[in-house]
Every structure is written in C-alpha cells, then in structure tokens.
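Researcher: I'd like a structural prediction for the single chain below. Treat it as a standalone chain; there are no partners to consider.
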Amino acid sequence: MIWFVLSALGAAGLGAVLVGTLISRRAENRMLEERLGIDTASPKERRTREERPAPLTEALDRALVKRGIGADLATQLARADLKLTVAEFVAVIVILVLSVGVVTYLWRQDVIITTAACLMAFFAPRAYVGVRRGQRLKAFNDQLGDTLNLLVNSIRAGYSILQAMRTVSEEMSPPISSEFGRVVQEVQLGISLEEALAHMLRRVPSDDLDMVVTAMNIQREVGGNLAEILDSISFTVRERIRIKGEIRTLTAQSRLSGYMVAAVPIILAGIIYLMNPEFIGILFEHTCGHMMIGAAVLGIVAGFLVMRKVVDIDI
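Model: Treating it as a single chain, here is the predicted structure.
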C-alpha cells in the first residue's frame, strides 16, 4: 500500500513538473506585455489566449501582487529572469511542500523530520531564486565593461544611442544582451528612453549600471560627449571588477569557513537524529532542551552574519 501511495505521489510530482514547464514556456511569450502593461501579441495569439481563460490564477496573481510580499516576489522573479507569475511560483511552493511532507511522513513517520523537510521545501524555491538572481547580477556586471566599450565604439562610428544598444543586444551574450534588447523593444513600443532605462535598472540592481544610466540621463538633459563619458565609466567599472575579484580571492577561505560553521552543526544534528532519534529527541521534550536549541540556532545565525559582514567589503 505504501509503495502504491509513493508511486502515485511520484507520478503526481512528475505531472506537476511537466505542467510547470508548460506554464513557464507559455508565460515566457507574454511576460513582456504583462510587465509593460500592454499587449504585443498577434491577433492569433490573442484569440488563443481568450480561448484559454484562467480566472482563478489571474485573480490570485493580482491579489498577491497587490500585497507587499507579492510585489517584492514579482520583482525578485524578474531579477532572476524566471518566466513565472507570482501565483505560479506560490503554487510551485505549495505543491513542493505538500509532496515532500507526505513522502517524508510515509518514509519515517516522524513529526520532527517531516516538519524539517517541509521547512526545507518551503525555503528551497526562494533560495533558488536568490542564487539565480545573484549569478545573473554577477554575469551582468562582468559583461558591463565590454558592453560600454561596444557602446563607445558604436557612438563614435556615428550610431545613435538606441542603435548602439541594438548592437549590444545583437553582439553580446545574455544576460546583458537580453536586457539591452528589452530596452530597445520598450522604446519602440512608445516608452521613453529614460523610463526604459529605469525599468532595466529595477530588473538589474547594479551600482555600475546605475552610474551608466545616470550619465546617459544627464547627457540627454545638458548635452556633452557621451562617448567620452562612457569611456571614463568603462575604465572605472573595469577597475572595480578587478578589485572585487582580488578581494573575492583573498576572502574565499573566510567565506567558506562561515558556511561551514553554520552548516556543520545542523548537518551533524540531523545525522545523529536519523541514527538515534531518542538521543536528540530529548531536547524537544523539555523546556531546557527548547532553550538550548534556541541558543544554538541564535549562535549559528549570529556567527554566520558576523563572518559575512567581516568579508563583505564594499568597493
């Protein structure tokens, strides 16, 4: 009976993954008009969309986005370049938590292990979004120096700033090509260049990009040689990237030590609990044990934050 239930859950999980993949691909085609608040689909695509109503999903998405947490989650999804709406992402979390909770309880029939597994399943998607957002931001910053050089050369060759951005979208690789391509597309759809650049800066919260956008906006208002300005900014960006790389190399051991200090106690406690539940289970049965667990968690979090703050050097 248990194996039948596990097989059913596995099939349901596989179906959820397939449905999520289809939703992701379908959302990718309409993500631009949803974020711009306009409809860029062809008449055929609009007819297909009208034949496929999803009032519950749309209502849930609107309700979540209106809340502070939902709006922040929508921003994080955009920064991670995940083609999912807030409602779809919340649905993924709910399905993952329920599936992991049921499978874990049928496997161990232990409330503590099931609770821990559900908490991990709850925070895992947000952690994935954070990791993907950080990787995308780092890749964007690493490409920004070469992109500025390409912009400078294009402007000196007689291109306008919009034509230079189009060249970036065609010559560079993602993520910077997709972001500049989106700026060009937004301008073609009637949005001003300043507003399109502000949208890109909201999607990519980079200090270097902020400096570039500010320089472009000032140049459009007061005039000046944009190529020379971007050339100077390019040198500054390259130096910052070089210094950050050196600092990252010098602080690699300290950062790894911080992760190890935070992870080893948790992993060790989990292994001991799986091997001998009664040995660790005593801590959950008495008030003194609860206080010891709280003190341990507080110490782990405080130590991890302190070590991260020490190695977090702002350039």
